[in-house]
Amino acid sequence: MQFPVLIYQDEDGVFIGEVPTLKGVHTYGKTLKELYKNLEEVLQLYLEVKKEPHLQTHYYFQILNIDDQAKNNISQKNYQVA
Known about the structure:
Oligomer: single chain
Number of helices: 1
Mean pLDDT: 76
Largest sheet: 3 strands, mixed
Shape: elongated
């Protein structure tokens, strides 16, 4: 399963990541690398707390980063949450 992740940068330069399909799942990081790490942690915590049978398998989320300088430059990262 994949989760859509909305990523944006606030006025202070902090990266914010939200999983709109999972209520309350959001985090931040000073860098994209830190944000990706924090997203993985918050998703793992969400899945542990939820403890629903259909959520006890492997899940994947995908992050698309669109470079504002060059709208055609899109990088993609895939993560597995065990």
